[in-house]
Amino acid sequence: MYIPEYTITNKTLQNITVIEYLKAVAETKVILPSWEKNLKKEAQVQFIKNNLNLLGIRTDVKEIKKYLDGLVKKPAELVENIKKSMDYVQILVQSPEIGEEDLRVLYGILLGQVLEGGTQDTPAKVTKMYRETPVENKPNPEELLAETVGLFDWLNSLDGRETHPLIKAAIVKARFTQLMPLKNYNELMGNLLAFYVLSTGKYGIKNFAHLEVAYAEDAAGYREAQKDLAITWTVRENSAETPENLDAGTVPEEEDLTPWIDFYISAMASKAASIKEEILLLSKDTKIATATGRAKLSKRQERIIRYLQDYGMLQNKDFGRLFPEISEDTVLRELKKLIKKDLVVKRGRTKSSRYELKQEGL
Asked: E strands along 201-359, which residues?
């Protein structure tokens, strides 16, 4: 079984305190349901965007939002698969343990495969997912299954369960980076496993933030921190002291995850501080909106406001995508009500007119 080696520093303890504060704020402050929904969507967008960036894929954030809003039926394939993998993690959270077979299912979702025994929504586990070619300073392909199972054994062990969720997420991410066990998407899978760890440990922050990918926003710091994860896997030589049942293979040098944990949790704390301020501001605005009656928006009006927040403006040509089930005249009536509430302004005339959020509006 894998046993991580590290020391908890004062820096890490201080950063954990920052994240604990965000957790308390998220769980106690009241904000409008429509704003909660928007926070959750923004967090999903950032998770997808950061992972695509790590894979070297540049995607327009607005296209990701349109997919999450149901405004486009077929996004870039990996965008859809990442979203489905996030949904599957939420299912896994309901189980007290996670194992190598769950990893195979997640990998199948990322590949977009429909396998024997599965469906489009719940694919069966992938049978061939491990790296088959040697990589410098990584374990040999034939050892990857055992090393991966060893990681899950630790996660499900008493030591793993008693490790603070924030530190545990850092360890899981680090170990996946050190092993690079999969044919593809190692970076992404490490983040999904860290997402699972935080969610099961009650650090999902109500899905208002995905702290497990905060490190990706500090590219220079991440490159430097990766150096601390580099360990040398040397060939084990059979000798008189080697047990007979232990095959020759590769063994890692002594590791110390302390610098990585410091960096990883520091990045999470920086993200937590900004999200905390946003929640506090939204909570204050909720009180004002409730007192002035501006919180009493219909679901259609809330959707218009969210659309304007995301895309800047709404034109007549967009009505059908945003509200395929109602007429253009009905959408116009909702817009007129928002204008009357002093939340939206109309610019231009006739069909070419556009609607925007009023600067001092929501």
From this structure: 233-235, 250-252, 314-315, 344-347, 354-357
